[in-house]
Design a protein that fits this description.
The protein is α+β, with helices and mostly antiparallel strands. Helix content is 25%, strand content 27%.
Length: 159
């Protein structure tokens, strides 16, 4: 089953209103936001990290950058680093590499979300491809994804 189909089925079962948008291929989170004509602060960027040898999903606004020391401290981990593509490509068999949705539980991953993402009522995210996104309410995302809120990134404004 394609990622988009899985997400649509999940949202229908859970009564979540959503919007699917198709666009020309875009590969970075900020490029997707630009193609979608939305603020990067409304786009949920997915980053994979390895914390003490465990793959974890990080979700943050597109303009933010992961702060590895802040993440390590927040997770109380000995070591934290960004994951390499070879370490996670097989985890998302229904997604194009780099276009994973922020629903780590669908793939057996713990999800950590930077609180900056919750500043707006809706979020948009890749739906498994570099040509499709979905938009849902942030409250619905939290209800379904059950992420741990954790300051894990730095805003470009704070840099």
């Amino acid at each position: 089953m394609a990622c988009l189909d899985r997400l649509e089925r999940l949202f229908a079962l859970q009564g979540v209103a959503y919007r699917v948008t198709r666009h020309s291929p875009a590969y970075t989170a900020q490029d997707v936001a630009n193609v979608e004509h939305i603020s990067g602060y409304d786009f949920a960027k997915v980053v994979l990290a390895v914390a003490d040898d465990t793959l974890v999903m990080l979700v943050l606004p597109a303009p933010y950058r992961v702060d590895l020391e802040r993440l390590r401290a927040g997770l109380r981990a000995r070591t934290v680093r960004l994951a390499e593509e070879r370490e996670f490509a097989d985890v998302f068999p229904d997604c194009e590499t780099g276009a994973m949705p922020p629903f780590g539980a669908l793939y057996g991953l713990k999800v950590y979300v930077d609180p900056g993402l919750g500043a707006h009522p809706q979020i948009t995210f890749n739906a498994g491809s570099h040509r499709e996104t979905m938009t849902i309410g942030f409250a619905d995302f939290v209800r379904l994804a059950r992420p741990t809120m954790l300051p894990l990134a730095r805003s470009p404004k704070a840099a």
